[in-house]
Amino acid sequence: MTFSMVIVLYFDYANEKEAEKVSEKLQSAGISSAGADGAVSSAQSGETSSKQEEVKRLPGGKIKKKDKHEVVIEKVVRNRRKCITVVKGLELFGVKLSDASKKLGKKFATGASVVKGPTEKEQIDVQGDVAYDIVDFITETWPDVPEAAIFFIEDGKKVPAA
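Structure for Translation machinery-associated protein 22, as requested:
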């Protein structure tokens, strides 16, 4: 007796609510119910593959979401009137951060450096308030970075740059 036959037999005897719960559990575990001939329907296979792309299962049942490819620009104020513009996420688009910091420093005539942020990921610190000018420079210099993937953090909220 195959696994799909066991599922079909179980569904014949269980009430509808229990059957829905079991099918949801099986789909979340990556097991889909098969038809009588053993073929998985195309709608179910497409649905599970999109779920697998979004999340990654770790040992112990933990689920890790994949990082979204986005550039986050944040303005940090220090000493009341001095600002630092922080650029995070450029490395996700294949940009070397050391080269990017050199280009940003030359373009805006300020100091720019690659530092490790609080989450142990590298980010670029640019001296001065150049947050809005930096978007045009990033999209012109690196065409792989779409403007729709650039966000600002203003008042603790993520706002799209476009």
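Residues 3-64 form one domain.
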